[in-house]
Fold these 4 entries.
Entry 1:
Amino acid sequence: MKRFLVYVLTAGILFVFGVSTSMAIGLEAAVGYFHQSPSGTVAYKPVSGVDNLDLESDLGYDSEWQATGRLKIDVPILPNIYLMATPMKFDGQGQKNVSFKFGDQTF
């Protein structure tokens, strides 16, 4: 029993001293902005070219500036942990002067 206790205490002491000297934790944070410019067309089961909706001219989407954030945690046990967030939200309102199909619905 004493021998087991000596082994446990020795292992505990080595662990504490080993961890305290090499257990560096780092933290890095970054915040920024970037420019999003949606462009192109969208369609769902298009029958003809008129069923394609242009994001800028038909739907009225415009360029947006969006915030982004990143958090990096440096822990030797779990390397390369990044937490990132980039919210994307686009609002637009437009109209198309001809009838078109989007899936099974005609507008």
Entry 2:
Amino acid sequence: MTFNNRLTETNSMDGFPDIGRGKVTGSRADNGKFRAPTLRNIKYSAPYMHDGRFKTLDDVINHYKSGGKTHQMLTRCFTRWPLTNIILKALKAFIETFNGALFIKILTFRIRLK
């Protein structure tokens, strides 16, 4: 599954240094396409974002809460989230429900995590 907004807007901190799948295929139609990762066992998949810029889920949540870095391509969809600390804690707790303790006990996955 991919997400593609055709690079017309962004919430990136630095514009479009990574054009996504278009860099691999050479097709302009693939610009802005990125693999949409699963939320399952997200606790074990750091670093986060398409370029690995955030080390923790808190960093990701705070990035979206702040509205990102202001620049000419910033979309109105990515405005500052007016969320209380209680709501932010609840959001993180909800995201963490996608983690499974059994996941880290399975040898195949333990090797991949190292």
Entry 3:
Amino acid sequence: MTAIDLDDGPLESVRFTGLKPGPKLIVLGAVHGNEPCGPTAILRAIDDCRAGRLKILRGEVTFVPVANPKAFRQKTREGDRNLNRDLREKPLANDYEDRIGNPLCALLRQHDALLDIHSFRGEGEPFVFFGPQNNRGELEPFARAEEEAALAGCLGVAIGIHGWLDNYARLLAIRARLDVPRLAVTEGYGTTEFMRFCGGYAVTLECGSHDDPEAGEIGYAAIRNTLAQLQLIDAAMPALALKDVIEMVDVLLCETQGDAAEGPWRTGDAVPAGAIIARRADGTPVTAPRDGFVIFPNKAPKLGEAICHFGIAGSRGPAA
């Protein structure tokens, strides 16, 4: 079988339906193909459901172990491009991610809540991304912030981060000054943003580094906690785990090839005002504008990519 034949293969999903009413949950893994923790955690949960160790009594759960089969088969972040950018239905598909994105979007529309399981490059503590407060704005209107924050708080990780889409808009404003292709703000829309657009709510769980053997365990525990929090199974409500909530407020871009993050910083690390967090190609240091947190430091960014995002202590808690 050729690679082209494999790329024509189906998107696998496994659904368990309880006999009593309840919410509909979807759990995704391997939106990026080099992140094995999602498939590991999800396949274990599927086995538990089939064996009766996890009994879905209410609502539904749909598991998608591998959301991007081509990237997963290649063990690369992307197949043709990043599936978690500009995710929406596209009647005329231009690449593999457009093609797989259509059935994936159709699945998302059928559900109330999404748990999207990821890992990240480099080192750092696991964390959860959640969305905006309730609002009627243009960028990401939303009306289910309380439910989403409650889900984020129960997953078992101590760090929560919000403000992604606003910060992505800031990134595009800076990028527009550079000699790089223009991007639309929809490039910042991935699985969670599409889910909110459809009237649901969603969180992205970052389980740690790609090669951390504990990442799959963190993802599996989060699945069990989510099933309990939504009461799809008979289990005690999981304990609140969030301790630090970070709001993304700024982004530092690679404006000249050679600009890069500097220092031992990891995602979620607290940095004091004035600490060096990056260095320009000409040797000029870039310092933290105030006390805050480093998010996704990149020591080898391409022109127009983020060197790092910067956050501050947020006022939102799990029930805000």
Entry 4:
Amino acid sequence: MEKWNPKRIIQKFKKTKMEKLAEKIGVEPLALPTYLQNEDTAALILKATKQMNVDDSAIFIQWSNAGFNDTAVANCRNGVAGQNQTAIINYIVGSGGSNFNDLNTMFLFRNNFAIARCQYSFPLWTYHQEGVPDVCHSICRINKLSASGRINYEPFDYPFVV
């Protein structure tokens, strides 16, 4: 006979990070976009929003290495030196974004004007190009709505992806 263990019972009721993220957004977990239906992604976003103030925003990016390796010149978009992931990261940070945990995927903004300026002033080479892989698989804006941690997300399709 198996010994009674209260931790096993509690674990069955413990929510996953994805479930917690969906709850903070106010949707069912499977209603989240596929790029947010990942435990590591959900954990990162939940951790980052704890560092954000109400009305702060963030950019979450899932990079595509293919977008930087479209020619024989490795890690350079269009084969041009300087057109790489580091240049985009430097652009975001230079526009007021803070590279959360130095993971190069989550960038926090303390000023909504800065994130708007950043969003609409990316270098032209980062834009979607017909026949060339995009520089990222997905990108979205995360907004912290309340002190209790309520958040929302919105597609950030401009300019990286179609």
